[in-house]
């Protein structure tokens, strides 16, 4: 690829990865985790629970769906969930906005300690009008920063898979129309007399 095109793609991805003031819903991390499934197998000794069949993992506004979700709890109570699906899906409200981050992948891993969500295999994230695709996407709920990776070459003859992004322009809020400071107002003058 031409070096200039590489720079443009890198610039576009950096813009997407710039932190914003709008974060994932902060109250979600303090909410309990709810799981629903057709079947569950729990191993209390190892702190591993396996949910299968139309599984829903909910914590506040965050929702992860998949065919199977395995949840491992550590000694401090943090959970690591791995969801498998075709595709598995993720949705979470953004802090202070009526907008959601939506994501998809063949496998989704959620870490409550790090507050990260990883999407693997045909990963796809949509935030507002921005759309990002790659083989592996890491999403930080703390910062709303995405890291997007291609899979590299699948074999010696194949081209490496590419990261794809569609970034929409961000519109500023409607600003008040103010007169230009350099312009002079036109006012009638009492000292000028019309010519005869």
Number of helices: 1
Domains (count): 1
Residue windows where pLDDT falls under 50 for at least 5 positions: 1-23, 174-181
CATH architecture: Sandwich
CATH topology: lipopolysaccharide transport protein A fold
CATH class: Mainly Beta
What percent of residues adopt helix (DSSP H or I)? under 10%
Entry keywords:
10-stranded antiparallel sheet; lipopolysaccharide transport protein A fold; 1 helix; 10 strands; mainly beta; 196 residues
Molecular structure report:
- This protein has 196 residues and is mainly beta.
- It has a single domain (3-166), classed as lipopolysaccharide transport protein A fold (Sandwich), CATH 2.60.450.10.
- The protein is 7% helix and 45% strand.
- It has one helix spanning 3-16; strands at residues 34-36, 39-43, 48-59, 62-73, 79-93, 100-111, 116-127, 130-140, 146-149, 164-166.
- Strands 1, 2, 3, 4, 5, 6, 7, 8, 9 and 10 form a ten-stranded antiparallel sheet that branches.
- β8 (130-140) and β9 (146-149) form a beta hairpin.
- The relative contact order is 0.13.
- Residues 1-23 and 174-181 have low confidence and may be disordered.
Task: Compose a concise summary of this entry.
With 196 residues, this protein is mainly β. Helix content is 7%, strand content 45%. It has one helix and ten strands; from the N terminus they run H-E-E-E-E-E-E-E-E-E-E.
List the helices and strands and how they pair.
Elements: H1 3-16, E1 34-36, E2 39-43, E3 48-59, E4 62-73, E5 79-93, E6 100-111, E7 116-127, E8 130-140, E9 146-149, E10 164-166
Antiparallel strand pairs: 1-3, 2-3, 3-4, 4-5, 5-6, 6-7, 7-8, 8-9, 8-10
